[in-house]
TrEMBL record:
GO terms for biological process: methylation. This is MT21C methyltransferase. Signal peptide: none annotated. InterPro entries: Methyltransf_16 (IPR019410), SAM-dependent_MTases_sf (IPR029063). The lineage of its organism: Eukaryota, Metazoa, Chordata, Craniata, Vertebrata. One of its GO terms (molecular function) is methyltransferase activity. Keywords: Methyltransferase, S-adenosyl-L-methionine, Transferase. Pfam families: Methyltransf_16. The keyword Transport does not apply.
């Protein structure tokens, strides 16, 4: 239900400005750790979007409500890896996924930010929405406690396979946390489809950046 009023939040400016010889590195601090993210201007998926900042901040601030420690977490459309890194710091077993062309930068960011820490080693895997799900992630072997997705609704030709991917991975007991900047009518149409398929709650809104953060769970008959 969308009846509960969402929390109204700001995206906190908790990244650390640095004079860097590389214009493409961003420094953030979450859960007491400094995270350095290398962005890539070649790909949409290799830039930190506001949804990732919103979800990272929310996970850090709501660890009692969404305790990721020792939980199995899948991020779809992981992009630069910021959210997956934060989930790792919070103790999750993380699988970060994205398109093949994004994986090199994603792997670089995740390994560089998690290798010195005492945490579960994250995995980086290719996932093309709606393709080869049974082969690559068979239901018998893969069950996730949390599915994380941020700013995945931007390429409007990919929305049907995106929804199919969300449905595939959301089993009874799985919580989908999806943060997105809402810009276009197609974004709201996709939101409506998500609400039709899942039990959906808007947890938080970040009005300055037009980001909504939603929690979705499978409808059990």
């Amino acid at each position: 239900s969308l009846t509960d009023p969402p929390e109204i939040l700001k995206i906190l400016q908790n990244w650390v400005p640095r004079v860097s010889p590389y214009f493409d590195k961003e420094h953030y601090t979450y859960a007491g750790h400094q995270i350095v993210i290398q962005e890539s201007i070649e790909h949409f998926g290799a830039v930190v979007w506001p949804g990732a900042l919103a979800l990272s901040q929310y996970l850090e601030s709501n660890q009692e409500q969404f305790n990721l420690k020792d939980k199995k977490v899948l991020e779809i459309g992981a992009g630069t890896g910021l959210v997956s890194i934060v989930a790792c710091i919070l103790g999750a077993y993380v699988t970060a996924t994205d398109l093949p062309e994004v994986l090199e930068n994603l792997s670089y960011n995740i390994s560089r930010n998690t290798q010195q820490m005492n945490m579960h080693k994250p995995e980086v895997r290719k996932l093309v929405w709606g393709e080869g799900l049974n082969e690559d992630f068979p239901v018998s072997s893969y069950h996730y406690d949390f599915i994380l997705a941020t700013d995945v609704v931007y390429h409007h030709t990919a929305l049907e396979p995106l929804l199919a991917t969300m449905v595939y991975f959301c089993k009874p007991g799985t919580v989908l946390l999806w943060a997105n900047k809402f810009r276009f009518s197609t974004d709201y149409e996709f939101l409506e489809k998500v609400c039709n398929v899942f039990n959906t709650t808007i947890l938080a809104e970040f009005p300055e950046s037009n980001v909504k953060l939603l929690k979705a769970t499978v409808r059990e008959n």
